[in-house]
Structure formats: structure tokens, C-alpha cells
Amino acid sequence: MKELKIGLVMLTILILVAIFAPYIATKDPYLLNDDLIAEPSAKYIFGTDGLGRDVFSMVIYGTRTSLKIGIFVAAVSSTIGILIGGVAGYIGGKVDRIISEIINIFLMLPTFFITLITIAIYGSSLRNIIIVMALTSWTGTARLMRSQAISLRERTFIKSAQTIGESSISILFKHIIPNGIFPIITNSTMIVSSAILSEAGLSFLGLGDPNVVSWGKIIAHGKTYLPRSWWICTFPGLAIVFTVLSFYLIGEGAHKLLNPKIRTKG
Amino acid sequence: MSSLLEIKDLTKYYVKKKAKNISRNKKKRQIIKAVDGVSFSLESGKVMGIIGESGCGKSTLGRLLIALEEPTSGIVKFQGKSISSRIKEDRLKFRRDCQMIFQNPFDTFDPRNNIKRILTSALKIHNIGSSKEERLDICIKYMENAGVIPAKDYLNRYPHELSGGQLQRISIIRSMLLNPKLIIADEPVSMLDVSVRADIINLLLEITEKQKAGLIFISHDIATTSYISDSIAVMYLGRIVEIGRTYDIINNSKHPYTKVLISNCMSIDPFENSKVIKIKGEPVTPMDAGEGCYFAPRCYKVSEKCKESYPPMIKVGEGHYASCFYLFDGESYLFTQ
Amino acid sequence: MGNYIKKRTITGVLTIVFSFCLTFFLTRCAPGNPVKVLAGADNPNPELIEHLTIRYGLDKSLPVQFVNYVKDVFKGDLGYSYISNRPVTTLIAEKIFPTILLSSTATLLSVVIGTILGIYAARRAGSILDRVMCGISYVFDSLPGFWLGLILILIFASGLGLLPTSGMYDVREDYEGLPKVLDIMRHMILPVSALLIIQTPAYFRVARSSVIQTMSEDFVLTLRATGMSENKIFNKYILRNAIIPTVTIFSSDLAFMVGGVTFVEIVFAWPGMGRLIMEAITRRDYPLLTGIYLMISISICIVMLITDIVYAFIDPRIRLR
Amino acid sequence: MTLLKMQHLNITYKTQEKAIKAVRDFDLNIELQDSMGIVGESGSGKSTLAMAVLQLLPKDITDISGEIIFNGIDLLKLNSEELKGIKWKEIAYVFQKSMNSLSPVHKIGYQLSDVYKVHEPNANKRQIRERVCELFELVNLPSRVYDLYPHELSGGMMQRVSIALSLIYYPKVLILDESTTALDVVTQRQILEEIMKLQEKLNLTRIMITHDVSIVASTCNKIAVMYAGYLLESGYVTDVLHSPKHPYTEELLNSYPSLRGEKGYLKGIPGYLPDLSQEHKGCIFADRCRKAMEKCFYNRPEMVEFSNQWKVACHLAGSEYSE
Amino acid sequence: TNKADEVGNNDGVDEVVKTGEAGDDRAKEGGTFVVSMGREPQTYNPNAYNDDGAYIVIQNIFNKLVKINGYDEIVPDLAKEWEFSEDGTEITFYLHENVKWHDGEDFSSEDVKWTFEQILKEKGFASGSLSDIEGIICPDENTVVMKLSSPNSGILGYIAWFGTYIMPKHIYEGTDWLENPANHKPIGTGPFKFVEHKSGESVTIVRNDDYWGDKPYLDKVVFRIIPEQSTAYQAWLNGEIDHTLNGVPATELSRFENDDNYLIYDKLWPNRGYILFNMKEGKFSDLKVRQAVAYGIDRDEIFTKALKGIGLKAEYFISPLYEWALNKDVKLPERDIEKARALLEEAGYTADENGIYFTTTIDTYPGFDDIVEVLQSNFREFGIDLQHNAMDDPTYDEKVWFGRDFEITMLGGYQGPDISAIGNRFGAGSVMNLGDYNNPRVEELLKEGVIFSAKEDRAVVYKEIQELLAEDLPAIFLYEKGAKIVVNSYVKGYPASAEAVEKASESEFTYVWLDK
Ligand SMILES: Nc1ncnc2c1ncn2[C@@H]1O[C@H](COP(=O)(O)OP(=O)(O)OP(=O)(O)O)[C@@H](O)[C@H]1O
Ligand SMILES: Nc1ncnc2c1ncn2[C@@H]1O[C@H](COP(=O)(O)OP(=O)(O)OP(=O)(O)O)[C@@H](O)[C@H]1O
Ligand SMILES: [Mg+2]
Ligand SMILES: [Mg+2]
Ligand code: NI
């Protein structure tokens, strides 16, 4: 479970950076220094961007935003997906058919477009971005959970829980969901990284939250300076790679930990 | 005196939308007659064995008896009242009175709960015992009675850390905790190693005797069933073809299918050389059983009559019934074969 | 089969109708309207705004607008775009070819490359090569698309001068026939590469893990016991079994192909649907938006139906229910 | 004449945490046209033993030492090319989980003919089909099975397909690993009789792996009792089952209820299979043995051979013999 | 009668600095000029409504009666001469002869009459500014007379500006001008003929060999549509396109400064960015707060950091291009944080522990990100926590333009073609007066401003308006919009170049030739 360990260590580092950002950052990330587009140097570790902001401090503070986006989106969408999929799969019958069709409809919605519209309506605050991403990414989880629930429903231990008199709701929460959740964890780690990337994409289109520093925003800002000022985009880019990698490693590790059948040698 | 459990004309059909091959998707839906008109009754303290080949509807019958599934038609009466009304009145009470021991001990418990939680939660649901400690004490008492000693060793273990035999025992203990009036044991030993089977069987027997509960023992292992039960019902494709006291069924079987089953049983004694009745053909699937006797296509005694209608249940001895047109005249057939 | 298609079509149509209604109201509830955009930001003319509002029926209540629109749709008319005053169908038709050309090439290539690499890595699971490839796949996975596009332009178009930066044709030369095809192919290299780098890791990993999984299945042991050569077992049996998850993600990728790949289209100035959608959104061109949306839903439905059928052919265990 | 001989066979699974000794110091002779039943509790190493014969164990996680001599050749010393000639053609194997023993997405006929082509690359389609149908008939399957997929068959049919597959070259040795345990008595009997007939016709040597002693009793001539990787007792069925010498064999038989006999009290064997990764002293069964003596816990019992190839590894049996 | 060029202003024109030299005079004919543009033309109906993409192409295909040249002067186009009547209520245009439409039909004054009537009838883009036109008469084929309901010295500027291209009557008459197929295959009288529009990709126009005016040198102009500025810039560097209308990224300009292969034209428009306050309600309806903002903003920082030194830092209350009307005594205040804080305290606010008096939100449409970034930093320094609410255009319209739901916002845009345009922004009830600024004296002055026609008279009026604006501070101007246009030196006759600046409109390529 080397992956899991490395991934967790990386995540811990990220979380620590996010918590202690004010102590780690060398400057105020919003401060406009007079050296525009300065190369990395002792004064500005990662250089400055087009408005003279210190890229290092921005990257450090950006950890807060980007991690928040990733983790919240994954948590919210997984919760929705697990509940909806669990109910559909466990109860079955008509409820399942209706929920499945709803999932299908959601699958057919071009999520990107919904994101744009929602942000247009409710504004591009970080909270809205998180909500809309979560609301458009739960379908995968729901489908996974549904199939899990369907197969779990037939398992003897669910029948036996019924026999000793447990109620449906308690079976759903006590047995179906806890037992079906493992493959969903892997899925959720993927949602984390794709949410971080999507936020970068939104920033590129000018739809990110302008009031906070995020890695996506730094890169989107830096793109005009790309030909000659590599540092603006590169460092937040590396931060994204680092984060995505940590979540992938955790996901893969968890997957392996929980699924002894996939056995890699050595 | 009314019996503990009485069932009448119980049926359960499954509708299956089946397309065997994508290109041959003509059949719209198929009806699987998993249980097809079963009646019998059981008294407290007695053991009824149900035998029959795999897929003949034994587990389905078991699930019907305990209201895990809705019957298509027919009535199941428990202590003189139909179980559906019992469930409506007091679900918990009914659940407490009827317990089932499932076919597969490895899958009977939530793999994420430890034994302590598995056992105490059953008590908690039914509000037995006032505190955690009290419930735990009850569990430990039962476990020690059932030979799971020392009980404390097991409490914090998870199901995957126990062997099949141990799990099966826990399963039995859990149903015992609630002092049920009726136990349905669905192939409780088929998954287990020979070396632990005997213990489980003995445990079950002991419990039925002590608590005067009715036990329905489902199995396709004829030897084991005959060892444990007072009476036996033989099922074929969802129907009971013969029912009677154990001795009668084993040594004096009337229905051709019962005879086939019993003669095919292998013995561990290499010198025993019994006659084996051989039959041809695949077991028919419960989907395309025709008009007549379901066993007719494979029966060695078959005649035209068998294919026309299903033979009625006929009394052939004290508490011994069988459904076949040729119950009496074919006695010598077995030996001339 | 026929029955199945009929049934799926009916539910498909229902879902399309439902989601169509949803987006109809969603788009029109979005703040702002196309008319002010048409009037411009400098010195907008209130009379023009009023005039166009009436002309496009935007003064009517939403349900009335909806009924009118649905009536038109039943006449097979998706209406005229507000901003360009051309039929929505024409606008879509113009952009759909480049989009499909780009995304299908990229998707097909990434399926093939990703799967081949995945299989290759799976057979050498645990080796250094396998680890390196997995590592690279993670890194590729975390690259923001637009950034990657610009970098590719900087390296291959500006730095090395090998390829054109953007667009679909060389506008200086009016190529015809084969040279035109080659010209388009040349222009496709960079955008396709960008998409490849983004899409391939998923296929790589799916192929790799499903091959590894299949190799541990029991039937492989049976075949080994018969003395069949490893290569034959692999090529004939493992692959066919391992390919099924790939089909699943391929189908979902395929379904969203017509929607275009906005970042790549913007960065590489590729004339596709993604940009059309963006344009329609930023200008609130309702008929165009609704039309595009309807088309996307329909194509997703069709693709899903087709992949379901393909699926059933690849995996006989999946019964069409 | 000895066809297959295992000598000092040791098989260890190396997992990340521990080494599981699944087969230990195993000696067994199987003679031509024998039908050898290997019985033992689940996990006692029966499947491992059978897989080792065909070298099917994953090489990187298993250690095998000792000899497996087939027709005078040590299979463990052969390279994979040489082994190929023996695999399936000489020794065939019916797997325990026959439900999963064929690829789910290929038709059964296709897979069978593919296997046939492994050693008969020149066979034409018609020949192959004929052969396959012939085999189907042998195991009582309709020929339409040729065009079906594995999931379209019932468990019993699939079991028979596996048997047909194993017979495709009429091998010298047929190993059946719990091949009939999951079937109902009638079908089980049918198949076993089919196989016994074939055995006579084709001069097969058969190894039956099972934990159901009654199957061995009625279909085999010899029996080997395994426990925790060790061979505890082996010999003719008539000898061993009639008057078992090893306490384990005895208890095993006691825990079977008899169909017609007296309803005596059934006795289980208390305790569980020991942890195979642990080193131990003395007799492996000593912990659970009712007759265990002091020395059983310290000295490993020798394999004692009685007349008529009856061998027992027990101190009790040894002393009896020497007395 | 007043001559046109007296109305137009050429006082501020020396802002156009010519950095390059035009080389020899022998212009080469032929060649294809490939330029990039960011937005795709949607319709080639030149007058129906605003389309930034089509605007660039349309100038080369259509003519107006008069047009605006690179010096922001009104110069002849189809009308070779024009004159105002004594009372200022009649304008007579004398048209060029032998003008032909691209399809070969003859052009006549009837086309002009039809076009203007159509614009007014169909409420075309310019109809609001042209509403003073009462009637149009065509005395002969080459003369058009416009009757005005009241004297309006600004109207000629609007006729020259946008949405007033002369359209072919013979093609449009009797049809719905929004759905006429010619909107996608435009027929004009201009120097170039439309060839094709490859959707999403490019627009091609070729030389009109029968052009009535100065014939273009180029054979062909291809407009490549490249939405992303960085991509267009790279394509230009790589020589795939000859010129990028997307603009060269500001940070890259220094590369070209001392390079002989490039010419840089400095351009300044009467276009300025400013902060607009909601005067009716909210925190900024208090003059003290507005003054605090005026003192607290660092316009230098905005100019150097957000604008990278392009254009000008705003100093006055009107665009310095209208120098004749500029009141040099009324200047925006220099930064004084202490004063700003003092003003906020006077307004009754108290600072919290971080020195922040209150929090507010600035609403913007796209394009002001960097500027707002600097503003946020400025505001924080003098005690206001400024949140940024960035919206897309329609959302902004809904909230701010229609809804007037804002406290403070950013606006920019064209403040021409005549100085009277200031009325559109600060006249009570006028379209761009989003802050609902209402000063009766300003209203009076604005009315006077268009009635007078002499510059001296007008200057007095507009100088007083500037004073009032400075007093009331409905807006704080931040910068004058400009550009540094980088052109390859082989591109001669670029609209901003000395050769063409007086004759060509902003993106008109009639005088362009390629010295390759
Ligand atoms: N939920 C279900 N849906 C459809 N068919 C079912 C369902 N449950 C059982 N069946 C079918 O009903 C028949 C009887 O099944 P059942 O499980 O009762 O047999 P059984 O006698 O218990 O077999 P076994 O000995 O293998 O446990 C079978 O053909 C089975 O396929
Ligand atoms: N791949 C493996 N890795 C590690 N241990 C293994 C592996 N396969 C089998 N074992 C262990 O080896 C021992 C013998 O297993 P084997 O499958 O040979 O038993 P068996 O006698 O065939 O049992 P059954 O009757 O259940 O089939 C068991 O303890 C098992 O846990
Ligand atoms: Mg069952
Ligand atoms: Mg085994
Ligand atoms: Ni404009």
C-alpha cells in the first residue's frame, strides 16, 4: 500500500500548507508589488505575475481555494450520488426506474453548459462554483452506488437483517451504504481532481470567483504572459499535478487495499 | 390443536423478461413457477425436512414462510393467523418469532460489523435487555450454551475472521437470542466442511428440543435430512411430490422421484451395493413445465396419463402422501429393473 | 431486438423531451437577454431593444414562448438564430463537421493508443516501464487543457516551426482535393495531440486495470492448462474480455463528442460546436442554444442506444432488457 | 506400473506477510488405471497439489520442491515448451470452479475447438466439430451447446462441458477437482457413471479431488486422505474406509450421517485446520486428535506402510503395526 | 453653410504618432493580406444592430455618406461634399457619380433615402441618434437632402460613425431586412467585394475592380477568426497571418520597439474607462464617499500595472482628444489616502481593526479584471473592502443596465463621435446614465451644447459641464483607452499609417499594400 501512504503524506502536506498559508507565504498574495513579471529570485521565489503579485504566495494561498473546491465538490456529489443511487438500487421497482431516468436526464445535460448558466444566474462565487460542480457530477457516483445496492440487496446478510426485524431505512444506512461505498471512494478521489481542473477551465473563460486566489486563476491570468514568463503558469500547474497525483495515489491505494483480487506483483 | 405453521396452496411465480439470444428475442416474458401449490403443516417441537434437487424452490419456500417475499397466492398461517396480518399488526413480534438460518454462512453477516455488534443489535431492535452490558451478557450466555467458548474471544472479531462453521453457529445463536417459535434452516450445512457439519446439526436439534420450536430443515443432502427430521417433504419443480415421516420416505418411498433420489444417494461404505435407479434427461426448468406431471419427462414409469394432468395427492400411509398415478402397482418394478 | 430498440427509443424520446423542456426554461431564465446584446454596449438604442423584443416575441410570457417554439419544432423548424438571423440548423450543420472530425479522430486515437499502452503496461505490470507510464498518465491527467494547448503551440508551431498554430485550413492557399485533405490533417495535428494527451490516460488506466483483472480470472487458468500459448490466450481471450470497460467510457466520450471541446477549439481557433455554444451562451441566443441542446440530447441518446447494442454483442452476458 | 509419482513434494505460497505451506512432504504413487480419490477438509491443499502437477501455480508466488514424475519424466524439471506437449494431451484437469472455467464472451464450441487446435493444429473445422459433438454426447449434452455461451448453461451443464473439454484429447490422466460436488445427487451420479465408463473404455487414470467421502467410496478404488498439506493415510478404498487406521480418517467418517443406518449420535471434529504458515512440531493433527499422546506433539510420525499399499502417518498406527 | 471639416475636430489628432517611415512611394499591387480577428461576424446587415465581428469586414464592403478617419475627423465617403443650411435644419449631401453596387446595379440617391428611412423605420442601431431626421428628399440622382426637426450639430458625427452604411435598395426593398439572404452575401459599394465566409474559420473579400474611389492595391483580404489572443499573436509571429487585430499582448510590446521589421502606431480613442456610482441609493450616493474614492484611487498604478502603460492616465473630465473643449482647471485629484480616510470618517463611517470602513461590491462586465484587481488593492488601502462581482454581458445588463441594482460599477466605451455624447452618459434619463445622475444645470447646458455650432460657443458650455461633473463626481475617470498597434514593416498603408490615416476608416484596407 505504498501508493496510499505516499498519497496521504502528500495530502497532509497540502492540508498543512492550506492551514498555515499565512505563515508559509512570504507576501500578501493580493499585494501588487511594483516589479511586474519579475523572474523567480530570492525576493520573489516563484517570480511575480503581470500585476506584480508574488506567485509563490498566490500558489500557497491558492491551495486553500483549490483544495476546498476539490474536497467539497467530491464530498457533496458523493453524498448525493450515494443517497440517490442507494435508494434507487435498494428499493428497486418503480422508484428505481424513475430515479434511473432522472439520472439519464442528468447524464444528457451538457454539464459544462449548465455550469455556465448557473454561474451566470447566481454569480461566480466560490460557493456557487462548488455547488454547481457538485450538482453536475453526482450521476457517476449514483450509477455506481445503484449497481452496488442492487447486488447488495440480493446478499444474504441484507435478507438476514430483514429477518431479525431491521427497518428498511436502517438497512439502507447501516448495511447497504457502508458496504457499497468502497468503489465509490476511488471514484470520489477522481472527482476531487477533476473539480480542481474544471475550476481552472472556468477561470480560463473568466468565470472563476474573482475574489479569491486559485491555481486555476493564476494559470488563466498567466496565459497571456506564457511566451516569455513561464513561471506564472508553471508553479500553479505543478501544484495541480501534485494535488491530482496525491488524490490518484490515495484512490489507487484505497482501491488496492479494498480489492485484494487486483494483485500487482512485486 | 392448531399447528404452529400451516400453509395452503402456496405459490410463488417469478416473471422473468428473458432474451436468451439477442437475435431470438421472441419470448416476451416467462413465468418461473418457483413454488407451485405447496401445502403442509408443522407442529411445535418437530422437525420437517425438505429435500429436492437444486433449484426446485426450497429456498423460495423458506423465504415465503418468513415473509421475506410476497406469495403469488396461497396462505401461510403462523399460530393460526396469516402472516401478512401478523406483520401488519406487529412486525417486530413476528420477526422475533420466526427466524431463518441462511444457506451461506459466509454472507449472512454484514462484513463490516463485528460479532458483538451483530448479536447485540438483534437484541436492541427488539428491545431486549435494558443496557449495553445487559445485552452483551445475554449474548455471552447464549454463545457459551452453544459451545462458542470462550465467548469473549469472538466478540471483537469480524465475520471474515471466522470459519464457516463458526459463522453458522453465530447465525444460529443470533436466531436463538430471540427465542423464536419457528426456525427455518436453509441448507445450513451445505457450505460447510464435513468435520463441522455434525456439530451444527446437533446444535440445531438440541435447540429445537429445548425451546419447543418448529424447525424446517431445507437441504438436498438426503442423509443429513433424514438424520435430523421427523418428517420429510420431497419437492420437485416447486411442488411437493411426497410427504411423510422420515422412516416412510427413506425406506418406503412411493413416488418415483423420491425413489430415484434415495437410490442415487451415495454411501460412504464402499461395500454397500444398492440398486440405483437411473433416469435420463436434464432436470426441467421451472419455466417450461407442461400440463401433466412435472416429473413425467424423466420418469421411468411414465404413461400417457401422466402427460395429461397433474396427479393428485393420495394418502398412502399414516401421514404419508404422494402424488403419482402409479403409487401401488409399480412396487415390484424397482426390483425387476 | 426490434422490441428493445423500440422501447429504448420511446424512453429516449421521453428523456429528450423532458430535458429539452428543462433547458428551454433554464436558458430563458438565465439573467439578461439577447436583445440588449444586439443593441451593443456603446450607446445602445432603447427603441431597437423594444423593437427586437417584440419582434422575437420576448415580451410574451415564457409558457407562450414555449408553446410557440414547440409548434415550430413540430414543423421541423428550429427557428432562426437571433444574432445571425440564419436558420439554427444551418449554423449547427456548418460547425458539426469540424467538431466531429476533431473529436472523433482524437477519441479514436486515444482509445487505440491508450488501450494498446494499457495492455502493454498490464503485461509488464510492476516493471519500471509500467510505473513510468502510470506516472506519466497521472501527470497528463492533471494538465489544464488550455494551458497544454498554448504550450503545444509555443513548442511545435512557434519554437520548431513544424506545424501551423491554428485554424483548419491554410487560408493563403486555396487547396482542393487531396492537398486540401492533407492540409486539414496538418492543421489537426496539434489540437488532436492536445486532446490525446488529455484523454488517453483514462483509456490507458482502464485498459491496464481490466487486463490485469482479466488475467486473474479462472478461465485463463483453464486455457493455460491446455497448453495454449500465452500469446494466443492473450490476444484471443483476455483482450476480448478486458475491452468491455473501455467500451463503456468510449461510449460516454462519444456521446459528448458532438458538444465540442471548447478549450481546444478556442485555443486552436478550430471552427467547431464548442465555440458556437460559447457564443450562443454569452449572447443568450435562445433559439440557437435550444437547437444545439436538442441536437446534443438526441445524439447522446442515439449513441447510447448504439453502444448498448454494441455492448451486447461484445458481451453476451449483457441481456438487453 | 506407476504412472504418476510425487516425491517429497513441498509447495509454499509466498504472500506479502507470510509463507503458507500448502503441501508438505508429500509422497504418493498413482498407478496406471487407478482411480484415486483425494479427500480432505477445505484448505488442506488438494487443489494446490493438482495444480502443481500441471504447473499452473503462479510462478512468482509459489515455491515447489520435490519431484513429480510422470511416465518417468520429472515434470518440475521440464521447460515450458516440453511441458506443453504433456499439458492436456497427457494430463487434463477439470477445475473446481467450472462455472468460470471458460471465457464468458466466447461461444463454447469456439473455445473447445480452439483448445483442440492447440495440439492438432491441422484439424479442419468439420473434424473438430465432429469431435466436439462426440464429446458432448459422451457427457450427455445436446449438440446445440456448441453454439451457446457459458452463461446460457446451467451449473450442471457447464460442469459437463468442463469434463468434455478435459477429455478432448483422451488424456492418460484426468484430474477432477470437486467437479461434481455442486450438483444434485441424480446428476452427480449420472456424470460419475459416465466418467467411469469412459475410464474403462479409454484406459484413463483418474484423480478425484473432493471432500465428500461418499463419492470416493462409490467411484474410486484408492483413496488418499490429506490434512493441512500432509498425506495422512492412503490405500485401497475397501481397506481405508472399512477400517480407517488414522484417527482423522476415522473421525471424518464418523461425521457422516448414514442414510439408512441407526440414528446414532453424529460426532464432529472439534477445532480447526491449523495455520499453515506456522511452523509446528509433531503430528499436524495432534491438536484436534482425540487419541493424541504425548509424543504426538513432539515427534512427527513416519509414514508406515502396511500391506497392499496401505500407508498411514500416525504414531498409533505405527505402534499397532510394530506390536 | 458650414463645411464638414469645421464640425469635425482635428485638434487632438497629434496623439497619432507615426513611428515608422513609409518607404518608397511605388505601391505594389496584388497579394493577399491575412489578418486575424477575435470574433466571428454574425450578419453582414451593416445597420440592423451591433456586431463587433462584422464591423471590421463591413467597413471594407460598404460605404457611408461620410466616415471617420484615423484622426477622428469626419471625411467624405459616398458624399464628396455636404453642407448645412443656414438655420442648421437641413444637410445636403452631394454624392459621387458612377458609383455601382457590387452586383453591377447603379447606385443612386434613392438608395441613401431608402437606407435612412429603413433605419428609422426598423429601429436600426443608429436610429436613436438619427431621430432628429424628419425627412429625406432626393432632388436628383446624386443629391440627398436631410431635413432635421431641430438644429443638431452632433448629428453628422453619428451619420459618419456606425450603423449608417448605405444598403442596396434594389435588393432589400420589400423584404425583411433581418432575414434577407444578402445579409450573408453582402452587396455593397465598397472597395472590396465579399467572397465567402467559412464558418468559424475565415472571411474572404477581394478587390472591387470597378470601385469608384481609390482602388485598393490588395487582391484579397482574408480575415482569420482566432478567438484567443495568444494564439493569434503566435500565428502572427510565425507569419501565418500578416497582422493581428486581436492585438499584441501588452507585455510583449517591448520586443518590437527597436526592431526595424515592425512599426508601432500609437492610437488613442475618445474612449475612457471610469468608475460609475449609483447616485440614487447606496453608500455612494453620499458625495463625501465619492470624493473619498476620488482621492483614494491610484490612477498611476492602474495605468502602469493594469494597462501596462498603454493609452493615457485620465486627468480631466472629458477625453483630452476634445482639446478645444477641455477645461484644464478641472482636474481629477491626486491621490491622498489620508484625505480619503478623513472624508470617509466625515461621512460617518468608522474603521474596524483592519482599518476597513465598509464592504461593497463592484459589478463589472468582462474586460476589467486587472483594473478591478488594482482597484481592490487601492480601496483596501484607504479603507474600503471592495468585492468583485464579475458577470458576463447579459447578466450585467440585467442587473446593472436594466435593473440599476449596483453601488459601484465600471464602464468604458466610445465617447464620440461628437463631444455631445457626454449627454448619453450624464444626461438625466439617457441610456448610459446608469447611476441616475441628475443635475438640472447640466441638463440645460447639454441642450445648449448641440444647438450652438461654433466651437467657441460650445467650448464654454462643455467647460461648465466639466466643472459640474467635478463637483458632483457621478463618475471617476481612470484612463483614456489607447493602443499600440504593431504592424510588420512590409505592410504599407495600414489605416493608422501616414499614408492612409487621413483617408481610411479604422479597419479599412483600401490603402494597404504589401512590400514583400
Ligand atoms: N428472485 C428471483 N427471481 C427470479 N427467479 C428466481 C428468483 N429466486 C429464485 N428464482 C428461481 O426460482 C427457482 C427456485 O429457486 P430456489 O432458490 O428456491 O431453489 P433451491 O431449491 O433453493 O435451490 P438450491 O438448492 O440451489 O438452493 C429457480 O429456478 C430460480 O432460478
Ligand atoms: N494463491 C494463493 N495464495 C496464498 N495462499 C493460497 C493461494 N491459493 C491457496 N492458498 C492456500 O493454500 C491452502 C491450500 O489451498 P487449496 O486450494 O489447495 O485447498 P483445497 O484443499 O483445494 O480446498 P477446497 O476444498 O476448499 O478447494 C489454503 O490454506 C489456502 O488458503
Ligand atoms: Mg436454495
Ligand atoms: Mg480446491
Ligand atoms: Ni464596440
TrEMBL record, chain A:
A GO biological-process term: transmembrane transport
This protein's UniProt keywords: Cell membrane, Membrane, Transmembrane, Transmembrane helix, Transport
InterPro entries noted in UniProt: BP-dependent_transpt_permease, MetI-like, MetI-like_sf, OppC_N
Any one GO cellular component localisation term in the record: plasma membrane
Residue intervals passing through the bilayer: 7-25, 69-91, 103-122, 128-145, 230-250
Record Pfam families: BPD_transp_1, OppC_N
PANTHER family associated with the record: D,D-DIPEPTIDE TRANSPORT SYSTEM PERMEASE PROTEIN DDPC-RELATED, OLIGOPEPTIDE TRANSPORT SYSTEM PERMEASE PROTEIN APPC
Name this protein carries in UniProt: Peptide/nickel transport system permease protein
From TrEMBL, chain B:
Pfam families from the UniProt entry: ABC_tran, oligo_HPY
InterPro entries: AAA+_ATPase, ABC_transp_ATP-bind, ABC_transporter-like_ATP-bd, ABC_transporter-like_CS, Oligopep_ABC_C, P-loop_NTPase
GO function terms (MF aspect): ATP binding; ATP hydrolysis activity
Gene3D superfamilies: P-loop containing nucleotide triphosphate hydrolases
Entry annotated with the keyword GTP-binding: no
Keywords of the record: ATP-binding, Nucleotide-binding, Transport
ABC transporter domain sequence ranges: 5-262
Domain of life: Bacteria
Biological process according to GO: peptide transport; transmembrane transport
Name assigned to this protein: Peptide/nickel transport system ATP-binding protein
Source organism of this protein record: Tepidimicrobium xylanilyticum
UniProtKB/TrEMBL annotation, chain C:
Signal peptide region: none
InterPro entries cross-referenced by the UniProt entry: BPD_transp_1_N, MetI-like, MetI-like_sf
Keywords: Cell membrane, Membrane, Transmembrane, Transmembrane helix, Transport
Subcellular localization(s) per the UniProt record: Cell membrane
One record GO biological process: transmembrane transport
Pfam families the UniProt entry points to: BPD_transp_1, BPD_transp_1_N
Superkingdom of the source species: Bacteria
GO cellular component: plasma membrane
Bilayer topology annotation: Multi-pass membrane protein
The ABC transmembrane type-1 domain, residue ranges: 96-311
Ranges annotated as spanning the membrane: 96-122, 143-164, 184-204, 242-270, 290-314
Family from the record: Belongs to the binding-protein-dependent transport system permease family.
Protein name: Peptide/nickel transport system permease protein
Lineage, highest ranks first: Bacteria, Bacillati, Bacillota, Tissierellia, Tissierellales
Automatic annotation (TrEMBL), chain D:
Localization, UniProt: Cell membrane
Residue ranges constituting the ABC transporter domain according to the UniProt record: 6-253
PANTHER family: NICKEL ABC TRANSPORTER, ATP-BINDING PROTEIN, OLIGOPEPTIDE TRANSPORT ATP-BINDING PROTEIN APPD
Membrane topology: Peripheral membrane protein
Superkingdom of the organism of origin: Bacteria
GO MF annotation: an example: ATP binding
Protein name: Nickel import system ATP-binding protein NikD
CDD domains: ABC_NikE_OppD_transporters
Xref: NCBIfam families: oligo_HPY (TIGR01727)
Organism, scientific name: Tepidimicrobium xylanilyticum
Catalytic activity: Ni(2+)(out) + ATP + H2O = Ni(2+)(in) + ADP + phosphate + H(+)
Self-association and partners: The complex is composed of two ATP-binding proteins (NikD and NikE), two transmembrane proteins (NikB and NikC) and a solute-binding protein (NikA).
Keywords recorded for this protein, A-Z: ATP-binding, Cell membrane, Ion transport, Membrane, Nickel, Nickel transport, Nucleotide-binding, Translocase, Transport
Gene Ontology biological process terms, A to Z: peptide transport
A Pfam family it matches: oligo_HPY
